[in-house]
Amino acid sequence: MAYSTEALRSIAFVGHAGAGKTSLVQALLRAAGMNGEARSPEDPLERKYGHTLSASVHHADHRDCRIYLLDTPGYPDFIGHAIATLPAADTAAVVIDAERGIEMMTLRMMELAHARGMCRLVIINKIDQPGVDLAGLMRQVQEVFGRECLPINLPAASGREVHDCFFSPDGDADFSTVADAHRALMDQVVEVDPAFMETYLEQGDIAPEVLHSPFEQALREGHLIPVCFVSARGGAGLPELLDVMVRLMPNPAEGNPPLLYRQDAEDGRKRTPLRSQPDASRHVIAHAFKIAVDPYVGRLATFRIHQGTLRRDGTLYIGDSRKPFRVAHLYTPQGREQAETQQGVPGDICAVSRVEEIYSDAILHDALEDASIHLEPVPLPQPIYGLSIEPRKRGDEQRLWDVLQKLCAEDPCLRVERMMSIGETVLSGLGEMHLRCVLDRMTEVYKIEVETHPPKIAYRETVAGEGDGHHRHKKQTGGAGQFGEVFLRVEALPRGAGFEFVDAVKGGVIPRQFLPAVEKGVLQAMESGPVAGYPMQDVRVTVYDGKSHPVDSKEVAFVVAARKAFRDAVQKARPLLMEPQVQIDVTVPDENMGDVTADLSSRRGQISGMRKGHDTASIVSGLIPLSELNGYQSRLHSLTGGRGSYTVSFSHYEAVPAATQQKMASQRREIQDE
Fold first, then answer.
1. Distance (Å, rounded) from C-alpha 327 to C-alpha 311?
2. What is the pLDDT of residue 268?
3. Of these four, 146, 391, 516, 609, which has the most CB atoms within 10 Å of its CB?
4. Which residues form the Tr-type G domain (predicted)?
5. CA pair distance 646, 672, nearest whole angstrom
6. What is the Cα 199 distance to its own chain's centre?
7. Whose CA is closest to 222, among 250, 183, 261, 259?
């Protein structure tokens, strides 16, 4: 059955691991009469690790509408899959475990959804568990996320039932009253519209059915965050949650539009904000948010259509590529299965297979004039755990590299790089479990055995000051020679700023066609810094002078000149080695608090706060160098009798102590001497 854009909803289920997102999605599918086991056959690795490892897309048909349900991982090591899914949804449904309350990933996903301008919905799951304090949890939600979090339904009969509070002003509840909740919702909704506010003050109430427009406005502005109560296992609240999604959550024309921009063809740093139109008659604009690579089926790209109508056998372009591909098959995802469909309209989530050129975050379009359109990138955590990896069987080097490229295409937070300075291939991810899962997938899916070496820290290099560099590349080989001369300046940028290339050349001393070659040479030099051979970042390079030859100047000459001029400048700009600092949250029994904080301090940790956790536990938060966490799990186990746990997430890079920099520089020189 084909649905119009107005009849579509897309909901991303996000939150902490164990909150019950996957079981809730499956329960909603069953409640809607769909296939509740759509994720089967279960991924054996997910069964092994007990966690959802990647995002999956399902759909449920309810009340003449189609709801796309995006199930995402909640374990911190796999957060990249969850974050990458956000642009495909209009609403972020933040799922909270009624027993455990608000946890680290709950906070993080709520903040990310707010930063993207998404409408938000809080779902409190497992409400029928014995002893849960739902009234206390509702107060905690409002204290942490704001008074705009209001229950749109309330549990009754000890969590075995749920009563609507928006469309119905009467009913019983386990805490508060339906009447009070109804009044609070009405007060909050009419505040965004002066006309409705005036009517409300005069009449004392307004029929909820006529408040759809201000309700959607309140959602878009973050003025209202509805809270729903549900039990995925017991079934309480499932029909009511489906009704809330269809009747009250935004369709693609009502939610905040995606953050698109058009890049200037002449100056790539100039961007013009662009608003897509959820109009089926316009050019197609779609965004690929998930890539899956199957060893037998090939690459499957899942994307959200933001504008236009995409039909089977139509053609699409990928990003700025000028080569179109034909949509031979168009699919609607249902978990691990794909159903063929004839077309997709704005708001639909579709998939195409066997198009190897599609990459994660690509914009798909059907008009060459839209090649400069991009989606504002979602800030992904940086991979900070690394493993040196090599094939167990000699001769499998190329096959290993091909497999690693496929795995990186699927996972937005997985990186592989060849560290020329140490002659190793390094695979980097978000944590030990992340990399362990990747290694298991290589063995079980791709049947390739590898050897790994102890984890390596993803150090980076930068400069602390400013320096000028110069190099003239001149080569004569009998015929046409090579000539290029470059003067440039290197200076530090703020932490996390990345790289900036500035063209300050006057009078055409370096012809414009050779400036991309200069930038290419600089980027090549940045792959291996002067201190310990790690990639460089947070630098601005300004090219201000040079020379060329009308016959001998070539691209390769300016690449070489720029590379050597950059290295010359960096040596004068006080190069620095930087290490990743991570935000750490340690859950610890109250009686072990002192021992744990003292141990963190001894590891160069900076304690930033403490807060009450579940039951008799507390959560210690702070910053700590990643290098200091080697063996920390065993130490924490010892200090807390096995009752402590911790999570980390990347924060920023900071300079290593001077003694550490000298030691690592000496080690590199020894390797080079050998």
1. 8
2. 67
3. 391
4. 6-253
5. 38
6. 43
7. 250
